[in-house]
Amino acid sequence: MKPLVDKELCVACGECIDACPVGAISVGDECAEISDECTLCGMCVDACQYGAISMPDVGTGADEDLSRYKGVWVFVEWRHGTVHRVSYELLTVGRKLAEKKGTDLCAVIQGHKLDGVEKDLFRYGAKTVYVVDHPSLAHFTDEIYGNVLVELVRRYRPEILLAGGTSTGRSFIPRVAAMLQTGLTADCTELDINDEGLLLQTRPAFGGNIMASILCPYRRPQIATVRPKVLRAEPLDMPVDGQVVRPDLPGACFVSRVEVLEEQVLEGPGANIAEADVVVSGGRGLQRKENFAMLEELASLLNGAVGASRGAVEAGLADPSQQVGQTGRTVAPVLYMAVGISGAVQHVVGMQGSKVIVAVNRDPEAPIFDVCHFGVVADLFEFVPAFIRKIRKERGEEV
Ligand SMILES: Cc1cc2nc3c(=O)[nH]c(=O)nc-3n(C[C@H](O)[C@H](O)[C@H](O)COP(=O)(O)OP(=O)(O)OC[C@H]3O[C@@H](n4cnc5c(N)ncnc54)[C@H](O)[C@@H]3O)c2cc1C
Hints:
CATH class of the largest domain: Alpha Beta
CATH topology of the largest domain: Rossmann fold
Number of strands: 21
Strand order of the largest sheet: 11-15-10-5-8-9-16
Radius of gyration: 24 Å
Oligomer: single chain
CATH architecture of the largest domain: 3-Layer(aba) Sandwich
Bound molecules: flavin-adenine dinucleotide
Shape: globular
Largest sheet: 7 strands, parallel
């Protein structure tokens, strides 16, 4: 969907080109053309002094009775026999949202051989756990997982639906939102309820330069995803005395054009950075790929993993699986060391949840010093080897 250009009114002046923040507009001989890059932000509509550009009519859904939608739902991700940690994080925030709205928190889980899984979900405050256990759900496929979730939403009408910004969530939640013709705010960093009772979905926008608070006033459910480790998981002292509902779904929900033949867990140097308690990340300041060896040595001394900035990845110093940040992984370890990283906002959004941040940079003005707890202004090629020697010495090892 794109804004509409009225060819009669457009004079091909090109003002809308400058107004478009994503470069989606070009001007041909006669009038402006808008490409699929358009994010429907509406800046071109405001910029056009001839009134030639208008937003498409997406309807307001005002004809639908939104009061029929009740409750906060969390899609619980079940992979390889365990609940993904993001689901506990979402249940924790979902509990707070449900309290504010005076409604119930519910969990919905799909998979196969899910016996007893609900106990853990009651510990996080779910009053109702919808369990769909079916052999076709043993492996994740967008179509079946999407069909099942859409069917459940249509049947039980939750007001809010939260899901993890994981590869699974990213893969099928947009499909769910599209099938339900509602909005989706991906990769939120904060969720709250505003004075009108709407879900306030906050996330970085325009390349991380602003934090946008997004509302979905006319459609239901209001759907948001949050990446793992952005929020904290807090179980209740006493589990909720909840109920399990096992809905009977039509066979058509379980039909897919995709057959999963095999699942392989992706390996790579950054495979464990999201789980590690210590992450030592290197930036473009490392200069050469071989120099990452000293970060690996430091990380292994601290029982940690090695991450990287996008600058380092783009320069070929590190593997894309190691990238931390807006377009990489989100990490929140106990200790995060940023070595030779300037601290661009797109990097910071991926590590600002870390408990202790230590920055090593030779430029005292580097923005990373605004977000770190401890800053070391030094040449990393002097500091890191000296730090390694100190750790080894204190442990009584040969140096
Ligand atoms: C849409 C978008 C998404 C993005 N997503 C991400 C993302 O997910 N992750 C990410 O990291 N970036 C991301 N970026 C890129 C981001 O804006 C920065 O360009 C990138 O983080 C810079 O990487 P860097 O800090 O390693 O490099 P630089 O900015 O070049 O910084 C290198 C730092 O090393 C220091 N240094 C150099 N030599 C030494 C030395 N010998 N000793 C000590 N310090 C030294 C310098 O002082 C400098 O501060 C994104 C950008 C955009 C537009």
